[in-house]
Amino acid sequence: MSEQSQQDLQRAEEARSFLVLRVQKFMDHARNADTATLTAQIYYFLQSLGAEEALQKLTDGLRACGDLPNADEACGNGM
Q1: Spatial distance between the Cα atoms of 61 and 58, rounded to a whole number of angstroms
Q2: Per-residue pLDDT tens digits for 10-65
Q3: Hey, CA dihedral for 10, 16, 19, 25, is it positive or negative?
Q4: DSSP character string of 16-72
């Protein structure tokens, strides 16, 4: 196996490990949940994946480029 393939395999394993733990936790908490609990669990799941930070980086990048309408839409202010 080439060095690149080994690195790719290592990154894939890290990604799998990152996701499996979070998905399992979500499934455990969401199983048989009512609507309010399920909604909260989806939020927490997305938070555990880093969605808030990613959205903030996207918004900051759009603002830095002067793309205020898309920045506002990305953070929910454009609705």
Answers
A1: 5
A2: 999 999 999 999 999 999 999 999 999 999 999 999 999 999 899 889 889 988 98
A3: negative
A4: HHHHHHHHHHHHHHHTT--HHHHHHHHHHHHHHTTHHHHHHHHHHHHHHTT-HHHHH
Q: Which two tokens stand for residue 31?
A: 């199983």
- d(CA 31, CA 73) in angstroms, rounded, equals 32
List b or e across 5-14, with b for residues whose CB sees 16 or more CB atoms inside 10 angstroms.
eeeeeeeeee
Q: Assign 76 a pLDDT band (cuts: 50, 70, 90).
A: confident
- Could you tell me the two tokens for 76? 């929910």
Answering whether pTM is above 0.70, one says no
CA distance 15 to 20: 8
